[in-house]
Design brief:
Order of helices and strands of chain A: EEHEEEEH
Strand content of chain A: 35-45%
Largest interface: A-B, 18 and 19 residues
Radius of gyration of chain A: 13 Å
CATH architecture of the largest domain in chain B: 3-Layer(aba) Sandwich
Oligomer: heterodimer
Number of helices of chain B: 11
CATH topology of the largest domain in chain B: Aspartate Aminotransferase, domain 2
Strand order of the largest sheet of chain A: 1-2-6-5-4-3
CATH class of the largest domain in chain B: Alpha Beta
Bound molecules: pyridoxal-5'-phosphate
CATH class of chain A: Alpha Beta
Strand order of the largest sheet of chain B: 2-9-8-7-6-4-5
Helix content of chain B: 25-40%
Chain lengths: 97, 365
């Protein structure tokens, strides 16, 4: 069993959004991103020098990170900021599954 | 790494400043005592004060814990208290919040779409009883300067004091503009230490100290002394910060800031990105805000940092009123800012990164 994802930073920012950064046990996988809830939009800018991924669930959160790297960032929109940490961890667990 | 966040703090620090800081850390307590270590420390502080004084002709230099502390002292301490306060349109919160906290009516100086003050309209729309004008020398969001000298003349003619926030410009633009009080920090283009600031106090300006305590003389009195700088400098001073600043001010900043500003704006334009608030030819520092269609500024900052190793700053930059002027208060912008240590190589890195990012963002959207 892989270790749990770990919250490494939590910070309030612009307009009341809350940023949670999480260190996954392994590098972020594209197939795991593709399996996330279909209500979000996934964009992988894979022609950049490093493949930057963003998965946007409007009004809920924006997930960003580099495919293959362990650090991912959740920017939790205003209405969900109070549950930022648990939401981010739950999605991070889905990514690790 | 290519560093483009000089508007937040300029790195690397000036070597002479670091040497000054080390010397300051080893000094005794200055004050007005007579033992050798005290005298040596007091001499060093005086020397630093004279060096900084060259930036603020005809003003008394007082040292504080940053531009924020200096601005709070200037705005909250001004006597007589202003009954109405005029605010620059692009203020940083370090100036805006203490002004708003005075609890008196405030009005914003009329301005154009870039936030540059319109002096004719300011004269025509001047609000009676305005006793204080708080203005930033240049915007920390767009780099664009304000017509401070003419504004000071106008304010003086209409009986108002002017507090100038010169945090972004100290060391690179003249501060001899007729303001009554001028505040700046040591860690921006002078490249001395954070946590050190200056308030220049003009002749005849009366200030109530915000911080009271020992000053090294007049110890038997209950009140703070009337004389400057001691009236505003209670407590043991920040010797490393003050000596670092003195050394940095003596050396000065040699930098063609106008060329740097043009070059930085050109890099952002060349990438096809939308530059904000720099449409006129007002003088400007190399601080450029932009947006990338379809990408939140925070995501752009993250991409530049993690993919391209280029450091920039996204958000509201502690200047919400400037973003209201630009219409970007909801999402903020991405801000790039260069400094005197920025190299042609750094600019080339930035140009490559912005070009790549803009191209891929366009293709993906
Ligand atoms: C325009 C402006 N004013 C004031 C300040 C406050 O300076 P400090 O944080 O050094 O107190 C800053 C710093 O970011 C600034 O950019």
């Amino acid at each position: 069993m892989s270790p749990d994802p770990e919250v490494v930073l939590m910070r309030d920012c612009l307009g009341g959004e809350r940023v949670v950064e999480i260190e996954l046990a392994d590098g972020l996988r594209r197939d795991a991103l593709e399996r996330l809830d279909g209500s979000g939009t996934l964009m992988v800018l894979d022609s950049l020098p490093k493949p930057f991924a963003r998965y946007d669930r409007p009004g809920f959160f924006l997930l960003t990170g580099i495919v293959g790297e362990r650090r991912v960032r959740f920017t939790m929109r205003l209405a969900h900021r109070d549950r930022a940490e648990e939401t981010a961890l739950a999605v991070a667990r889905e990514l690790a599954a | 790494m290519s560093y483009f966040d000089h508007a937040a703090t300029s790195l690397p620090r000036a070597p002479v400043a670091l040497e000054g800081a080390l010397r300051g850390a080893e000094l005794g307590n200055p004050g007005r005592g007579l033992h050798r270590l005290q005298r040596a420390a007091a001499d060093e502080v005086d020397r630093a004060r004279r060096a900084v004084g060259a930036l603020l002709p005809a003003m008394t230099v007082t040292f504080h814990a940053g531009a924020t502390a200096a601005l709070n002292q200037a705005i909250a301490g001004l006597r007589p208290r202003p009954r109405v306060v005029a605010l620059g349109p692009m203020l940083h919160n370090a100036a805006r919040r203490p002004a708003r906290a005075l609890g008196v009516p405030t009005w914003t100086l009329p301005h154009d779409a870039d936030g540059v003050i319109d002096l004719d309209r300011a004269r025509a729309e001047w609000v009676d009883d305005t006793g204080l004008v708080v203005v930033g020398h240049s915007s920390n969001v767009t780099g664009v300067g304000q017509p401070v000298e003419a504004l000071c003349a106008l304010a003086k003619a209409l009986g108002a004091r002017v507090v100038l926030d010169a945090a972004p410009t100290a060391g690179v633009w003249s501060l001899d503009l007729g303001a009554d009080l001028v505040a700046f920090s040591a860690h921006k283009h002078l490249r001395a230490l954070p946590g050190t600031g200056v308030l220049g106090v003009g002749p005849g300006v009366e200030l109530e100290p915000l911080v009271r305590g020992g000053v090294g003389f007049d110890a038997a009195a209950d009140e703070m002394p009337e004389v400057l700088p001691e009236r505003l400098e209670a407590g043991t001073p920040n010797l490393p910060g003050i000596l670092a600043l003195g050394a940095a001010a003596r050396v000065g900043v040699s930098w063609d800031v106008e060329a740097a500003s043009g070059a930085l704006e050109e890099v952002v334009h060349a990438a096809g990105l939308r530059v904000l608030g720099r449409s006129a030819d007002a003088p400007a520092l190399p601080v450029v805000s932009f947006t990338v269609a379809g990408q939140e500024p925070r995501a752009v900052e993250e991409m530049l940092d993690r993919v391209f190793d280029v450091t920039v700053r996204a958000g509201l930059h502690c200047a919400p009123s400037a973003h209201r002027v630009l219409g970007t208060e909801r999402t903020g912008t991405v801000r790039v800012s260069s400094g005197s240590t920025t190299t042609a190589g750094d600019l080339a890195e930035l140009a490559r990164a912005l070009g790549d990012l803009a191209r891929h963002a366009r293709a993906a959207s």
